[in-house]
């Protein structure tokens, strides 16, 4: 199976020097049966909380290297989609595949062990609205914790990688700072670096600027734009920032009531949406 999208600081995609990667979107890999292998595929996903159906027969596929943004009204199920991908929640029915491997079942249809689940899930990294940095650890300690414990990197290796990604987010000078000594925008950029040091192949971003002042949000979005432009990492993004969505996305999926009501290129969604519901949603957010 191809792992061509790996976001490797030592490799050819994102690097602190800012050398652009060769292509923005990677071709869909193929398995021996010539079926495309999607970076992530949600297959007929239903998710209910009690009687409340949050996601209804959701089908969503992201190509390796593709940047897909979910937009839609509050409560329509966008965060739930990302949480399911990170195995922070389990679907009520359906399957989720990461590079062709189910994060729920083995080939015999038995539920995966937690170790297997963790192995596959590790191909995803997530950045949350609230930065969730460890307050008692310095920036460097925050960045090397998971690489040394989960990926078993040596401290020196993890530090070198951390410094590389800190440079990429423009915060190499903050290596010894504690989160409380940083602005919200800086903390969020550290949170992005913390996700990247784990070398995810799929990056999940959930409203990463909505806790920030618009001015500060810009610096965080700049970092994400750069990662999107320069790396082959697949991205599934949830945002209310429509201009950002338009610039960064290969495809936009419009959610409403736990379903995708329409999807397409940013041009199609923003200039000639088919659905009346998409039009009214865009009107409400763009006039906000
Ligand atoms: N753990 C939970 N228990 C019960 N209901 C939940 C739970 N998590 C989410 N929900 C409900 O599922 C629905 C979808 O929530 P979700 O957070 O996915 O929406 P969203 O599209 O991300 O909204 P927003 O734009 O406000 O972030 C909401 O009605 C929410 O109240
Ligand atoms: Mg949400």
Automatic annotation (TrEMBL):
Residues 1-12 have a biased composition (Polar residues). Coiled coil: none annotated. Its main location: membrane. One of its GO terms (molecular function) is ATP binding. It comes from the Bacteria. Pfam families: ABC_tran. It is found in: Cell membrane. The keyword Lipoprotein does not apply. Residues 40-282 form the ABC transporter domain. It is a peripheral membrane protein. Transmembrane segments: none annotated. The keyword S-adenosyl-L-methionine does not apply. Residues 1-27 are annotated as: Disordered. Keywords: Amino-acid transport, ATP-binding, Cell membrane, Membrane, Nucleotide-binding, Transport. Involved in beta-(1-->2)glucan export. Transmembrane domains (TMD) form a pore in the inner membrane and the ATP-binding domain (NBD) is responsible for energy generation. Belongs to the ABC transporter superfamily. This is Amino acid ABC transporter ATP-binding protein. It comes from Bradyrhizobium diversitatis.
